[in-house]
Specification:
By secondary structure, the protein is mostly helical. Helix content is about 80%, strand content about 0%. The chain is built from nine helices and no strands. Helix 2 (about 20-35) packs antiparallel against helix 6 (about 105-120). The chain is globular.
């Protein structure tokens, strides 16, 4: 792959990620309440879903998913409902528990939250299927180029998520008492906001 094309691709991905989305908001919430090391399992779940979506795009499944409007709608709204449930649950736990006493979520739970939040946007398959061909040279082998584009995207996304998580974890360590209690509530609100963003995307795509 031409280096200039790769640099253009990197710039494009950076622009696309410049605005926080549902996965970034979830990472903020989980890293603030569970710490960065555990929060990274949320990022791992998100990246796992992204990888599967990329593979689906590379294998030519984009057209199938794009034509299955019912499947898209069901997956999206299940993801929305799941995030709302998590957000409300965290807000209620913050209200009844003493600050800092709430048990941390398991690594498996954090991974699953990240995975479901990303997988709730199955049109990502269509997005990757539309994005990658812009930077693939038809005269070269497809899969090596696909691997480079996929690895680059996952690396950039992982760095963004880690930066969000590190910032939230740093802030959480410096807040105590009532301030920490409000941080937990804000974290729950971030999850609900992530659900709202997913819902708005679904409604916008449906119109």
């Amino acid at each position: 792959m031409n280096f200039e094309i790769w640099i253009t691709y990197v710039a494009t991905v950076l622009l696309l990620m410049s605005t926080p989305g549902p996965s970034q908001l979830l990472m903020l919430s989980n890293a603030a309440t569970n710490g960065l090391r555990r929060g990274l399992f949320t990022a791992a779940g998100d990246l796992t879903a992204n990888l599967l979506q990329m593979l689906a795009a590379g294998l030519g499944l984009a057209a199938l998913i794009a034509t299955s409007a019912t499947t898209l709608a069901v997956i999206k709204w299940l993801g929305v409902a799941y995030l709302v449930f998590l957000g409300v649950k965290q807000i209620l736990k913050a209200r009844i528990a003493a600050p800092g006493d709430a048990p941390r979520a398991s690594r498996k739970t954090l991974w699953m939250q990240g995975f479901i939040t990303s997988a709730a946007n199955p049109k990502a398959v269509v997005f990757f299927a539309a994005l990658f061909p812009l930077f693939i040279d038809g005269a070269l082998l497809f899969w090596p180029q696909f691997a480079i584009l996929s690895a680059t995207y996952l690396t950039i996304d992982g760095l963004f998520l880690t930066a969000y998580g590190a910032s939230a974890s740093w802030l959480a360590r410096r807040l105590q008492g009532p301030a920490r209690l409000w941080l937990d509530r804000i974290g729950g609100s971030f999850m609900i906001l992530a659900a709202v963003l997913l819902g708005l995307k679904s409604l916008r795509n449906a119109s």
